[in-house]
Amino acid sequence: MKKHLIVILVIFSFISCNKIETHQTLDKEDIKYIKSLNLLTDGENIYKFYSEYKKDVAGNFFTDRRIATYWIDNRNPKKNEINSAYYKEIKKIDTVFNAGATYTPYILVTKINGNTFKVSVDGDKKEISAFFKDVLREWKTKR
Predict the structure, then answer these.
(1) pLDDT of residue 15 exceeding 90
(2) Nearest residue to 34 (alpha-carbon basis) of 7, 13, 63
(3) Which H helix or E strand runs over 116?
């Protein structure tokens, strides 16, 4: 019983340490990695970033130029997903705050060409709401 409790606490501590970050709080190696995925260019500024796992596996963010998400599966590269859209390419953005018990809140991005992708974010309600409001404001001013 005691071992189970310790395992649960360790797992919870890994899950709970994911937080919304900014360009200033991300490590230089994280920025370099995101650039290697062609999701960030020199001079582009990440406003808010969230990873539901490790940053080299998953990332969801928006910048002064685009909205982007990635999932990298090192065991099976066929499962890799890398999506982004510059604000001018976006037809609409839907925010889903209550995504159900097993899903994190997300933004559904619909591009002008009809393609869609989800950008997940988690935290307390205030942080999630601020992420949604900020990305919508950025899109509305840059489209």
Answers:
(1) no
(2) 63
(3) strand 116-120
Least confident window among 10-24, 30-44, 115-129: 10-24
- What does the pLDDT read at residue 17? 56
Comparing CA positions, the residue from 38, 85, 96 lying closest to residue 62 is 85
- Domains of the chain, by residue range, sit at 20-142
Residue 139, both tokens: 């899109």
- 8 A C-beta contact, residue 55 and residue 69: no
Residues 73 and 70: their CA atoms lie apart, in Å, by 10
Query: In DSSP terms, which residues pair with 8 in a beta bridge?
Result: none
Question: Which alpha helices (DSSP H) does 37-94 contain, by range?
Answer: none
Q: What region does 72 belong to: left with phi over 0, alpha with psi -120 to 50, or beta?
A: beta
3-state secondary structure of 78: helix
20-142 adopts what CATH topology? PH-domain like (2.30.29)
CA–CA distances in Å: residue 88 to residues 56, 78, 93, 110, 140: 27, 29, 12, 11, 10
- What percentage of residues in the chain have a pLDDT greater than 90? 71
What values do phi and psi take at 83, rounded to 5?
Answer: -135, 145
Q: Which residue has the tokens 């395992």?
A: 7
3-state secondary structure (DSSP) of residue 24: coil
